[in-house]
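// run 5 | inverse folding | seed 20
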């Protein structure tokens, strides 16, 4: 891994620097100061929440464990890392920086946040840092013009970033395989989760988001992050949405499995899987993402029809909102340093927002795909009691086979999610490639 990253890093850093030069020029600043941040503390307690370094900080270097540290960059000069290594025998002190990237920074090791602040240049500075908790001695200003520019360009991944995202997918695919085996062995949600963590070799706090591990009807809760400690009486279906981190980059992967003997549900999973592959194949330069989302509604309407859930045409199922009752979230989102990465709606490097298509309030990506972007493709079909009740009250309810719907409520739902990179040619499916190699 190190051997693959080392030759890619200098070009990545050069790109990050060019983007910073541009952002500072647009905002009218002389220095960019990027805080790793500090962990928020628990109310009335002497413990902190898990630390996660700011995505802006992680964009510069692969350093996740650096609370209180800073990057200070002045165009034309070597970037400086002000690295906090406290004198502390209560905790593990962050290790002194080493690896392929250190030669590209002037590194100053200090003992406290206050000492770090004293190392930062003064003057017209853009300070990218969380406002809460505040950082000793430095005021964050997070200038809009600078953030808009940096966020916009973060949409275009460098070869170095793509390599890290491939690895995040490999780790995730390996852990998904272990989770599937635990499901087939009759484990509880909790047991499956532990199998996932063990195979990923990551603890919860290191994952890019809280894993969703749902058996049976729990698959219908879109963000089900509860882990039943006991196995259900019967294993019918398993939906797992879980990712992994690699040097600050995320993977976001969902798979749905039918237990042996549940052929009807397996057939529906196969149809959603085939539809998903079709959508992933359309991740090409020039493809409007919102149009792909609407296209997905039409294809999924066809799946609902083919499996006998609805009798109306696909057209009218989409227009009347019937598909939205079964597929109530967006087709996907940008992914990178954050699982839901920035700039999904942005109009240009100067900001602005591209609205969602009417009737699709949860879509997180309204841009047109370009080479270098990485997006998730995650269609789903669910049997969600609340939404089905609403559908039942509509005139279109007459064209729904409710007995068939009721027979599937016990399976919860289906989602299949891959991370797909847009290139100059055919898409690169980071997730399918990782599963194939696992
Ligand atoms: N895991 C959250 C999502 O799929 O967007
Ligand atoms: Mn997901
Ligand atoms: Mn996702």
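// decoded
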């Amino acid at each position: 891994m190190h051997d693959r990253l080392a030759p890619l890093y200098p070009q990545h850093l050069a790109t990050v620097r060019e983007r910073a030069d541009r952002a500072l020029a647009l905002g009218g600043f002389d220095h960019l100061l990027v805080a790793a941040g500090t962990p928020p503390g628990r109310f009335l307690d002497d413990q902190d929440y898990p630390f996660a370094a700011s995505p802006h900080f992680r964009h510069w270097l692969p350093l996740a464990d650096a609370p209180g540290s800073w990057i200070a960059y002045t165009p034309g000069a070597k970037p400086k890392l002000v690295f906090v290594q406290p004198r502390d025998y209560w905790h593990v002190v962050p290790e002194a920086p080493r690896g392929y990237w250190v030669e590209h920074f002037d590194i100053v090791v200090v003992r406290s946040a206050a000492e770090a602040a004293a190392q930062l240049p003064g003057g017209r500075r853009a300070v990218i840092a969380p406002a809460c908790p505040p950082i000793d001695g430095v005021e964050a200003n997070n200038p809009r013009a600078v953030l808009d520019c940096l966020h916009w360009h973060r949409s275009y991944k460098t070869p170095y970033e793509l390599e890290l995202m491939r690895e995040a997918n490999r780790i995730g695919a390996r852990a998904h395989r272990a989770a599937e085996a635990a499901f087939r062995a009759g484990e509880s949600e909790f047991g499956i989760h532990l199998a996932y963590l063990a195979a990923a070799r990551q603890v919860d706090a290191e994952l890019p988001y809280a894993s969703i591990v749902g058996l049976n009807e729990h698959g219908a809760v879109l963000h089900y992050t509860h882990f039943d400690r006991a196995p259900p009486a019967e294993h019918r279906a398993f939906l797992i949405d879980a990712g992994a981190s690699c040097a600050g980059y995320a993977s976001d992967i969902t798979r749905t499995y039918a237990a042996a003997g549940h052929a009807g549900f397996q057939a529906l999973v196969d149809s959603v899987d085939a539809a998903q592959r079709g959508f992933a194949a359309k991740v090409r330069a020039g493809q409007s993402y919102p149009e792909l989302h609407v296209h997905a509604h039409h294809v999924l309407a066809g799946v609902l029809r083919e499996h006998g859930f609805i009798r109306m045409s696909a057209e009218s199922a989409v227009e009347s909102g019937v598909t939205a009752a079964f597929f109530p979230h967006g087709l996907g989102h940008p992914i990178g340093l954050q699982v839901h990465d920035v700039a999904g709606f942005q109009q240009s490097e100067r900001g602005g927002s591209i609205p969602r298509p009417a009737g699709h309030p949860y879509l997180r990506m309204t841009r047109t795909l370009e080479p270098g972007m990485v997006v998730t493709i995650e269609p789903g079909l669910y049997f969600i009691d609340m939404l089905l009740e609403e559908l039942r009250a509509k005139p279109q309810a007459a064209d729904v086979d409710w007995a068939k719907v009721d027979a599937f409520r016990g399976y919860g739902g289906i989602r299949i999610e891959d991370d797909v990179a847009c290139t100059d040619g055919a898409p690169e499916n980071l997730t399918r490639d990782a599963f194939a190699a696992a």
